Amino acid sequence: MAAPCVSPASSTGSSELGFGRSIDLTGQDLVVGAGRYAGGFGRAFVFHRDGAGGRFQLTADLQEPNDVQRFDAYFGDTVQIDGDTLIVTRPDTSASTGDGSKSGKVYVYRRVRSGEGTWALEQVLHSPEADGTWDGFGTAAALAGDLVAVRGRDETWIFQRKGAPASSEAPLANSEGATGEQAFVDSSITDHNERSVGSLVYDRAAEVCDSEPAGPGFYHADEVETSMMLALAPEAVRMDKAVAEYPTFPPEFGREPMQLRSFNSTGVFGDPRPATAETGEKIIARVVAESARRIEAWRQAL
Known about the structure:
The chain is an alpha+beta fold and 302 residues long. The chain folds into two domains: 10-186, 7 Propeller (Methylamine Dehydrogenase, Chain H), CATH 2.130.10; 197-301, Creatininase (Rossmann fold, 3-Layer(aba) Sandwich), CATH 3.40.50.10310. 16% of the residues lie in helices and 24% in strands. Strand 3 (43-48) and strand 4 form a beta hairpin. Helix 2 packs across helix 3 (277-301). The longest helix has 25 residues, at 277-301. The termini are far apart.
């Protein structure tokens, strides 16, 4: 028999609550993310039932601390629960406003009393490379036992709990409302210096290009791609048609399907006008050399 689990804020009549944007269920616990709650501040609601025949009852209403909340930051964009551990992502967006860092976060909660829906903030995870700007950290995340995997802009970070989980009767402590030392530490399976080949394009572009990207790590029909095409197939490039456009990205960009033409009139994201074949050759040479190095390293490891 199916029974609805209704948003605690449904009586407000708001169409932006996003209740159910993300959902996870384990045992007798249900967690529902509401990334669009209050226009994008976000919430995560935890429900618990006493047995197979019982109804799920709300036991926790989680939100980001007021002093670091940002509008359109999407707390609750992804939720995962495993036993007595719960994670809630706050990936932020390029359009967010408010206090605190724009770098993405993953909030880790731990059940305080076994068998109940009482949760305490244990730790706030950040990208080891966070610098306060939007970095894509938290746009996806997964929890499995003592491991938390978090997507960044060009990489996936793996965090592992140090030692055995702490006693469920005494919450740990950390920053932003949590209590004690860090329970999870970065243990990414890839060398931090071994960034994705795609990220090498961005790094090289920052070194040799004159124009700014339309968004962090976002290149499309701009100086980067146009320069590469001028180096590879100059006959296919019409520089007399080149125009610049720096559109305003919707808060949902990258997380929901959308037509680019809904906020971009030319198909250009950035400025292709400074593009040259020489710039394109420099970018391509870096990618080819690094790709060859990694392939050879992989072959040697077989």
